[in-house]
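Continuing the batch. This is chain 6 of the set; chains 1 through 5 are on the previous pages. Same settings as before, nothing changed between runs. Recording input and output for traceability.
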Amino acid sequence: MKKLLLIFILLLAAVPSFAAFNQGKQQALSQKISSVISQKTGGRVGYVFLDARTGLGVQVNGTQEFPAASVAKVPILCAIFHAAYSDASVLEKKLRYKESDRVGGSGVLQWMRADTDYTVWNLARLMIVLSDNVATRILVENFGMDAINSYLDDNGLKKTRITDPTMLVEPPSAEVNLTTPYEMAKLMVMLIKGDGFSPVDRKDMLSFLKHQRYRWGIWRGVPPGTIVADKTGNLEGILNDVGVVYTRSGDYILSLFTSGFKKQREARLLINELSRITYEEYTGEKLAAIKAVRHIKPARQIRKIKPIKRIKRHLKAKKKVIRRR
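Output for chain 6:
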C-alpha cells in the first residue's frame, strides 16, 4: 500500500502544474506581444487573445479592419448554422452546383462535374475543412449576403462584411471581405459557447474547424498533439488565422491578422511566433524554437492544372460522403 501511495505521489509530482491565467500573466503577455509586433515594420499586424474561462484578454490593433481572406468563411458558417437553429431542415437542403459557380483557389469542387447536388451541411464542411471556394460561393449566393451580414449586425459584428462570395477579391477593391481581429475572436467565443447554435450543430462546426487542412498558422506555435479548431486565410500579402486552442491549463481564443508584408514567409513566421508566445505565457510551458516551413502560395497563384490523383481519391471518397447525423 505504501509503495502504491509513493508511486501516486511521484506521478503527481511529474505532472506540470499550471497557474490560472490572471492579471499578472495578462500583463506579461501584453508586454511580450506588443514588443514583438512593434519591431515589425513591413506590414500591419492585428492580435487578439481571450481566455475562454476568465474572459481576460490582450489585443493589439484588435479593432482595426483587415482583409479577411478565407477567415470570412467562419461568419458564413455561423450565419448558416444559426439559421438551422430554428429550422434544422436548412442543413439537409440540397443545392445545385452550377457551371457558373466554378471558381479557382482552394478546394476540390472546382475539379468536379457541375450539375451535381450537395447538401448545405456537406458544402459547409467542404468550405471549412478544405477551404473550398466553390462550396463557399454556392452557400453565399443561396443564402444571400444580405442575410449573412444581417446576422453579423444582429450580433454586434458591425465591421465584418461579406461582399465577395469567391473569397478571391483583394485590396484595394471595394468588394474585399473585411473584418477585425476582435470581431472574429468574439465570433469564436459565441461558437464555443453555443450562442445561437444547437448542441449538435455546435459540435459539428467545431469538428470542421479541428479538421481543417491548412495548419501553417496557430498550429505551428503549439506542441504536437494540441487540439486547435481554427480557420486560416491566405491571399496576396494577407495571412490570417483565428481559432480556439485547447490546453491542459484551459482553452483560449487567438485571432491573428497580417497584411502588407512583402514576403509571405515573414508574416507566417510572425503568426507562428505570436502563437508560441501566447501558448507559453498561458500554460507556463516552454517550447522549442519554431522551424520554418515551405512557402505558401496565395490562393490566386495556385496552378489550375487538374490533379488527377486528387480527383480519383475524391470520387472514391464521394461514395462514402459524410452525412449529418
